[in-house]
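Many introductory courses stop at the sequence. We go one step further.
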Amino acid sequence: MSGLDLKAMTVDQLVARFVDICLRQDEALLEEDLAKFRRLFEQMRAVLDELSRALTIRERLSSRCTSTLICRCGSKQPRTR
């Protein structure tokens, strides 16, 4: 994959990479270059896998932060001293 470290990329960078690959795939199809399309497809799959992993981690962190806030804040009633 031309040396790109997908794990080091942000979600926004992964999405931009995905869009770029899709546009290049479209060009490959218009040029009837199936070998290029297949190479790009493998790159797209790798980006999608990493994007899925990154979003799963983000969801877990968000859920964990929400749980922590609920635990620290206690009930919905404000605390008084």
